[in-house]
Design brief:
Radius of gyration: 20 Å
Structural class: mainly alpha
Number of strands: 0
Largest sheet: none
Number of helices: 7
Shape: elongated
Distance between the termini: 60 Å
Strand content: under 5%
Length: 154
């Protein structure tokens, strides 16, 4: 049973490291194509919503994609910013592996803790990929969007 727990723990942690690495690469690419648009997309993309409020000069063909991707950021934003929870859960999980008596109940608890950590990482990946897609889509309109945002933010 201990061998099963260690193998499963190792596989899940490697999967989490892979998700984290891909997410880290996405974060590195944000702002390279258009830093004003990247600034509008920080946090839950509220700056983009302010810039698009009312009449906007972005072509109509992009509005459906913008709405879809901004809803995706909104959907995953609340979970993707639970980094402290992620670190605490991983620390408790590792402490349980090294100190607690191994049983099937503990295996279930530890696997559920790792699953929660993976969900946080996956949410962060999804939000960052939507931000990068929006940045690539809206980079030709960065001046207009920044002007509209600065005009309407107050």
């Amino acid at each position: 049973m201990k061998a099963f727990l260690q193998i499963t723990d190792c596989l899940m942690q490697f999967f989490m490291i892979g998700i984290w690495f891909v997410d880290w690469m996405l974060i590195r690419y944000q702002g390279r194509k258009s830093s004003p648009v990247a600034a509008l997309l920080q946090r839950n993309a509220s700056g983009l919503r302010i810039a698009l409020k009312g009449k906007c000069n972005v072509p109509r063909q992009y509005h459906q994609d913008i709405d879809r991707l901004s809803r995706k950021i909104d959907r995953w934003y609340w979970l993707s910013h639970k980094k402290l929870t992620l670190v605490v859960v991983l620390a408790v999980q590792e402490w349980l592996i090294f100190t607690a008596k191994q049983g099937w109940g503990l295996v279930a608890v530890e696997l559920s803790m790792l699953t929660a950590c993976m969900l946080i990482l996956i949410a962060d990946y999804k939000a960052n990929s939507a931000r990068l897609d929006l940045e690539n889509m809206l980079s030709p309109y960065q001046d207009r969007l920044w002007f509209e945002y600065s005009l309407r933010k107050n």
